[in-house]
């Protein structure tokens, strides 16, 4: 029995091999068009994946609760800016280019996440 491929699918011996169903009935039971809507995208959440983890996380969480979220974020921003300045001065001292400096800042952020400073 010859099998051929057409625009509507396989024809020939394929239909009879599916549990005795007739091919025409099978084609009718399958919708010819399937509508796919635009995927629903959830709003991104700004949350640290390491929240509550790390050696310094408990201290950071307690400090945030005591100082208040707004004041805590101001202090954190100042600390991050100061640390970036230290890294920049270090890179100037050793003659590192801006790309290496950026890599060091990213490394400092990853280490801060692992230690719990960004909890």
TrEMBL record:
Taxonomy, superkingdom: Eukaryota
GO MF terms held by the record: electron transfer activity
A GO cellular-component term linked to this record: chloroplast
Gene Ontology biological process: photosynthetic electron transport in photosystem I; response to high light intensity
Name of the molecule in the record: Proton gradient regulation 5
Provenance organism: Salix brachista
